[in-house]
Amino acid sequence: MNAREERFAAATERAQPSPPHDEVGSSSPALSDGGALESSSFDYWLLSRLRSSLGDPPVEFAMASGVRVGPGDATPLARVTFASRAALASTLADPWLRFGDAYSDGLVAIDGDLVRLLESVYHSSSSAGGRASLLRRAAEA
Fold first, then answer.
1. Which terminal residue of the chain has fewer beta carbons within 10 Å of its beta carbon, N or C?
2. CA-to-CA distance for 59 and 74, rounded, in angstroms?
3. Which candidate, 137, 138, 76, 139, places its Cα nearest to that of 112?
4. Rounded mean pLDDT of 24-46?
């Protein structure tokens, strides 16, 4: 395991939420199942927002927890897996700046060819009308 993979594994372990407990300290299946469902739905929504903001490239975006958003029936060129929701949210806020930071910090794992992934995202976002950050687009609205 190289240093980047070790950082990704460590970040994934830190990002795993502990299940909610009731007042006597035992695990509450109803709460933890509902919390997991809401968490998965929110992660799916964040991944979908990132994918659409990048022009729907033929890339699969995933969370380490297993939630995935991809190009439908097409075979993805690569898979980008975020170790934590914080890494995903940061990347969503300004993908052109923060993706590289998250990748170099070991918070993003890439399965596939990095160069083809970056070219694909660049071309998809150009066709979708630009590469402004989420914050800049919100400020202009």
1. C
2. 9
3. 76
4. 60
